[in-house]
Amino acid sequence: MTDLRVIEIYPSIQGESTRAGLPCTFVRLAGCPLRCRWCDTTYSFTGGDSMSIEAIIELVAESGIGLIEVTGGEPLAQPGTPQLLTSLCDQFDEVLLETSGSFPIADLDPRVGVILDLKAPGSGEESRNLWDNLPHLKSGDELKIVIADRTDYEWARDVYREHRPTVPTLFSPVFDEMEPAQLSQWLIEDQLPVRMQLQQHKYIWDPEARRT
Question: FRET pair for 139, CA 20 to 30 Å: which of 112, 117, 120, 168?
Answer without folding.
Answer: 120
